[in-house]
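Morning. Coffee machine broken again, so started the prediction first thing and wrote up yesterday's gels while waiting. Chain of 123 residues, entered below exactly as on the submission form.
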Amino acid sequence: QGQLVESGGGLVQAGGSVRLSCVDSGRTLSTKNMGWFRQAPGKEREFVAAISRTGPSVHYASFVRGRFTISRDNTQNTVFLQMNSLKPEDTAVYYCAASKFYPVVGAQRYDSWGQGTQVTVSS
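Came back before lunch.
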């Protein structure tokens, strides 16, 4: 079974943009519903966005709607999270995860996870 590997995090100023990527090294992304979560220091992991296997259906947490866009390219075994208009409160480690179900916002319904990528938004 392959691994999920995130990339694209870093330091960005408030109002800026970052694009996160998550690659499925097992090249089975097309069989999986995917989600992005984040975890800030001292806080619980929270749902950000989800996308169905073939991509036409997406679901967002209310706090990101209009700023973040989840997408996928199954030919590249990659799911993306485009984050615009970033705020300091978006600072967190961002994780991608795979699920048999869609749409799900609970982390317990996701059965494989990447290692996370840090996004830090400075004010």
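The two ends are 40 Å apart (CA to CA). Going to sketch it on the whiteboard this afternoon.
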